[in-house]
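Q: Structure tokens for this one, please.
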Amino acid sequence: MKKLVFIFLFVFSVSFSEVPFKDITDEHWAYKSVENLVNKGILKKDSDIFQGKNEITRYEFAYYLSKTMNQVDSEKASRNDLAILENLVYEFAKELNKTGFDSDLYLSKVKSHDEKIEELSAKLEENRKIIDELQKKIKELEKKIK
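A: Here is the predicted structure, written as tokens:
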């Protein structure tokens, strides 16, 4: 369970503002993760003490994991984010399944997101070409008008 909590905190570890807790310094290995989870609204900062050495229940873990997954579903995730999550799900599928997490369903969602990213990237490139062509035509028309 401690590995899962570590992974859970590690996955969402990029943030730059401060979250002042008296019991965790910015030099602590999990500080950025805690800070990011608080800034994203996944963890509540309801006191000045984080209490990072306290154990959490399986219910709490499931709740926070679910909040995290919902946020990943609702926000745009990069390919790198999806790859990290996919690798973690593969690596810890057994442990996640014990908490009631359906790793197969999640992995299918990750693959679906990856396919959507590929599709949107192709459409974006197609649109860039069309825009370039239209800009050339506009310039030609402007030259004819002058």
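A few notes: The first helix runs from residue 2 to 11. DSSP finds six helices and no strands in the chain.
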